[in-house]
Design a protein that fits this description.
Blueprint (H helix, E strand, L loop, with lengths): L1 E6 L7 H14 L4 E6 L13 H5 L8 H10 L2 E7 L7 H12 L11 E8 L4 H14 L12 E3 L10 H21 L2
Parallel strand pairs: 1-2, 1-3, 3-4, 4-5
Helix pairs in contact: 1-6
Length: 187
């Protein structure tokens, strides 16, 4: 089994990456392979709604999307993690999830995989961004475990998120629940 953590922050080593690593650490404690993928520095162009993927099953845009998407398809599940930017997910994350939807080519390679969002904010926008990513999981028929609260935390500067004890505790619990669920579905 393998679970990915996809970080949509354009900053390496920031709060979103920190929380994603914490969740993946809990998953790996259960003997499940993990991989962190950062979208920082990757070029993932927004979907241009050409529709070619519906007939060919392949997106015509050639960029870093194909590599990330391939790993998502091959995994047993994935976490989508983003900081809040202007009240929503980062442009990098939005481009990734919009391309995943149209690139299905009539198939749904994510159905019954496990996953869930992680959201970090300085102050506001957490709930909307959390819902934005949850819509992705729901439309793909994925299975999302709960935690002790929504998978959100507070932090602006690198490392500040570690001061949000409840947020970190929630993310750890989410990682444990994600591993538990992945194991139950794969037995």
């Amino acid at each position: 089994m393998k679970i990915l953590g996809i970080v949509g922050s354009p900053r390496l080593g920031g709060n979103t990456e920190t929380l994603t690593r914490i969740a993946l650490e809990e998953v790996s404690k259960e003997g499940i392979e993990t991989e962190l993928i950062s979208l920082a520095g990757k070029k993932i162009t927004p979907c241009d709604a050409c529709g070619s993927c519906r007939t060919t099953g392949v997106c015509h845009i050639q960029d870093d999307f194909q590599e990330v998407y391939g790993k998502m398809v091959e995994s047993d599940g994935f976490i989508l993690a983003t900081p809040v930017w202007f009240g929503g997910a980062t442009p990098q994350m939005v481009s990734l999830i919009s391309r995943c939807y149209l690139s299905r080519g009539g198939k749904n390679p994510f159905e019954n995989k496990v996953g869930g969002p992680i959201v970090v904010a300085r102050r506001a926008g957490k709930n909307f961004t959390f819902a934005q990513l949850m819509f992705f999981y729901m439309i793909h028929g994925m299975i999302v475990p709960g935690s002790t609260y929504w998978n959100v935390a507070i932090g602006r500067e690198k490392g500040e998120v570690m001061n949000d004890e409840e947020g970190v505790r929630t993310i750890r619990n989410f990682g444990r629940k994600l591993a538990w669920l992945a194991k139950k579905l794969n037995t």
